[in-house]
Amino acid sequence: MKLTQKLSESKKPLFSIEILPPLKGKSIQSIYDGIDPLMEFKPAFVDVTYHREEYIYKKRAGGYLEKVSIRKRPGTVGICAAIMNKYNVDAVPHIICGGFTKEETENALIDLQFLGIDNVLALRGDSIKTEPSFVPELGGNAYAIDLVKQITDMNKGKYMDEDMTDAAPTDFCIGVAAYPEKHFEAPNMISDLKNLKAKVDAGAEYVVTQMFFDNKKYFDFVKLCREHNIHVPIIPGLKILTGMKQITALPKIFQCDIPQPFYEELEKCKDDKAIKEVGIKWCIEQSKELVKANVPCLHFYTMGTSEATKRVAKEVF
From the candidates 9, 18, 66, 285, which is the catalytic residue? Predict the structure, then answer.
């Protein structure tokens, strides 16, 4: 079922999660172990991230360096199919620009359509570690809006092969990402909102935000979106802070602030266990306030673990 239909039919905020594919060489059981404890809360959907291939240089005999392609977390399409088969829940694959030609993207979307997957999250994706900034694949989409346009064209029966006639249209519900505290590459918030509006005008039907720890940032962002005629559902994304390293890592990687009252409580903690308890408590309060505001859904970035998310969900749902 399309996410927009689920959101419109629900009389209360829904619950959803985002998971990482297992590391290469690991079994899918690790995915099930992370989802099983959360099924009692009836997730409306499960997002599955996509991790593009990267390159490393290996020194070979004779002293020359060989460029070697690696993928640490393969299997997004297969994992989505397995999740839907096992749990009878909608799986939402991330579709990214980086590392794919438009033809490869089209083929992946055809496979997803054959599997009965109705929803996708269209993202530009991150740059690889060996590149200072994002570089699109030769013959690929450069921005998320280009990806949205390609999927929208397929929904209209327009494929890359112009000689195709009577092609069956796909029927994807397209989601995109947004940043309550501004994308780090955007010059300012207004320009960022214009980019989001362009993606919605191109066919995006819902938005999932990057993680935030201050609900005011989300509420202010939604208000700005409505003022700029962005009226699709905006799903808040939440992350439970569970370790000391995350106090500095998460704001750096995801460009999000840690509110001073939250930080003051974290400063009192002596170890990761204490950090986790404070993080869970903060997320519970965040979630309760968001539910009271009747947000469409609470989307939890579980990072492959479920214990902390389960504790929050027990208090909220």
Answer: 18
